Amino acid sequence: MATRIHWLQRSRRNGLTLVESLVSVTITAIAGVALFSAIGASLGASYSSLNHNVGTGLTDQMLEELSAVRFPTSSDTRPHSTANRKDFDDLDDYHNWSDSPPSSKNGYPLGQEPVTILERYLITRPSLLIPDTSFLDRLSREVTVERIRHDSSSGWVVTNDETGFRRVTVTIKLAMTTDTDSRSHTISEASRIFSYVPLSP
């Protein structure tokens, strides 16, 4: 009998009670929730950073294209909104222009332009270099060109008069889905001021 009592006392000391088990399970669950929340926040930050990098690249690409276009003269007229981008020949032609998904000036979807060697031999783009079209289809680019003048009291102001300055704003937006009614948010926006520099004689 004494041996049985001794064994019961020892087993009570070595085991876990139901309350202790519930406490340990609760602590583990709380730690797991915190861990998964941290992982989710990290993935969200990575996704946001990726979107921002893509948007910045598209913005810079568009601004570089605009830098290569001549400054408009007073005799230039802005083309109709249906005009093809490859026909744009001055900054004002880009006013209120947009495209979705983003494409090259020749009309090819980005990442699907033909690759050539010595401008003669077409080669197939490796599949690893073809971007995800489901992502690109949700992107849009918008360009606004404003005539501006410098005001000594308030800085740059928009005007309808002909000036030697243009402020170009490029906005990149990402839609939640590919539906036309889908809400979109701006992932990148940049402005640059262009000025007319007359040719020296």
Q: How would the blueprint of this fold be written?
A:
Layout: H1 2-14, H2 18-67, E1 97-99, E2 115-117, E3 121-123, H3 133-136, E4 139-151, E5 155-158, E6 165-175, E7 184-195
Antiparallel strand pairs: 1-4, 2-3, 4-5, 4-6, 6-7
Tell me what you see in this structure.
With 201 residues, the protein is α+β, with helices and mostly antiparallel strands. The chain has one domain (41-195). It is 33% helix and 24% strand. Strands 1, 4, 5, 6 and 7 form a 5-stranded antiparallel beta sheet that branches. Strands 2-3 form a two-stranded antiparallel sheet. The longest helix is centred in the N-terminal third of the chain and has 50 residues, at 18-67. The termini are far apart. The mean pLDDT is 80. Residues 84-96 have a biased composition (Basic and acidic residues). The chain crosses the membrane at residues 21-43.
